[in-house]
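Re: [help] complex structure
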Amino acid sequence: MHPRLGDLEANLALHRDWIRRAREARADLLVFPELSLTGYALRDLAPGVAVPLRGGPLEALAREAGPMAVAVGAVVPSRAGPPSNAGVLLEKGRAAFLHRKVYLPNHGMFEEARYFTSGDRFRVHRSKALGLTLGILVCRDLWHLSAGLVLGYRGLDLLLAMSASPGRDLTDGGEGQGGFGSLRMLQVLNEASARTLGVFVVHANRVGTEEGVTFAGGSEILDPTGRLLARGPEGEEALVTADLDPDLLRRARTALPLERDEKRDLTAREIRDALRERGRRPAD
Amino acid sequence: MLSASAGDAPRTDPAAAARVLAGALRDEVRRAGFERAVVGLSGGIDSAATLLLAARALGPSNAIAASLPVRGSSPASLEHARLAAAAAGVPLRALDLAPVLGALEAALPGSASDRNRRGNLAARARMIALYDLSAAEKALVIGTGNKTEILLGYTTLWGDMAAALHPLGDLYKCEVRALARHLGVPEPILAKPPSADLWEGQTDEGELGFTYDDADRVLYQWIDLQRRPEDLIASGVPEALFLAVRRRVLASSYKRRMPLVLKVSSRTVSMEYRLPRDAGT
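Output below.
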């Protein structure tokens, strides 16, 4: 989708429209991209488009969604001051789960840490309606492998990856397959997450241009073996759909029992040890 | 001329760039509230590629091409502007700015004999004409600046730099050439040496003192790949070339910024209070 920058009313209308289309397609879950309700390059518009979890437009959308679960990208207030860039899961007429983006990129073209307060946790949500345990990562969160690892330790089945990824590195893919290198990297990360965590991945990435920056699109859905179930076009709006067979989780994790074999205590011990050692290293 | 040895050159995929830039151009023009665009054609490669992109993005009937010759412009420039407009399927409007320049030169003593002042007058007179066309035709002014020229500051402030957006501004000159070829810019335009066409026999490379290919390699490795100057020079880039390029980049920094606001309050526009340009669209 292609939201309007800083225009909540217009974007609510767009969300209602996509919700209607997804319900017509008999979807159980609809995932919007990062900051779908507000647009991305907000700068000092951010505080003005923050929405409360209760009693506001999020609940209105939740009611519109009926029995369908919906993940929306929104700016939500934070008691720390500046608001958070968040993914909000709407279920049964209310905001049932919230993930505040932990990794706010602040380098090169990015300035998120200037305007937002970062999240401080990676949690999962057991959805009775979907029969799956799901977690949300927002864009840059996905690049930190530790984020997926923690969600995996918490019993993740379905990763909702919500992005507004600015297209960069327009390289020659060969055979006329040129495209954004940054999107190729996201596809690699999605596949790696699906395969190594043994989870479904639904990655929603927005399209359109803001401030001269083009968002790449190419939303995709992968199964726990890393197989691509569906992929949307680059640079165009689309409702990308796939059927997720929950039994695939069992089959994928039996064929490749990474979850069973994961040495969590060893990992925790090694991370603690590495952090202690890091603390003893001389300053750079 | 100074020259650089072979090294990594920028290579954005021209087909992908054409697709992405046409989409972004359409999007940004429409969110500014316009359906149409106006491009000033110099007869050169950058403006020809820009017009072809605009025609692709918005449709030829929504692109306006203007040729804005002044006294001293080469007759070939007008001919090449015609070729570019024809390639884009857009009628060319030739607006003779020679009388305007003549009047300005008469009013501004010494300007006629000073190449620099005369060049800036011509660039700014063209800007006035393009912005008037913008108002008359409800068409957004599309700039033709490329990354090499923007970085070197080889532009006139409030002249050719004045535009709503520069679709080629993130492509080095060598990448613009590849894109122009992909878009179907006619061969005579691709083949001729780049020139601002402000006086007879002027070429960009003659004025700069190095070639665009050399500048592109140096800029790409130094700025995009973040190689250290000493490593660049050790790898064969002549020190004098690197220093000449760097001097131009640093000395023209002011051209890439809006005017400074002198701060006295605690919430200054563009310092503490920063809005996206595309707010609400």
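The mean pLDDT of chain B is 94.
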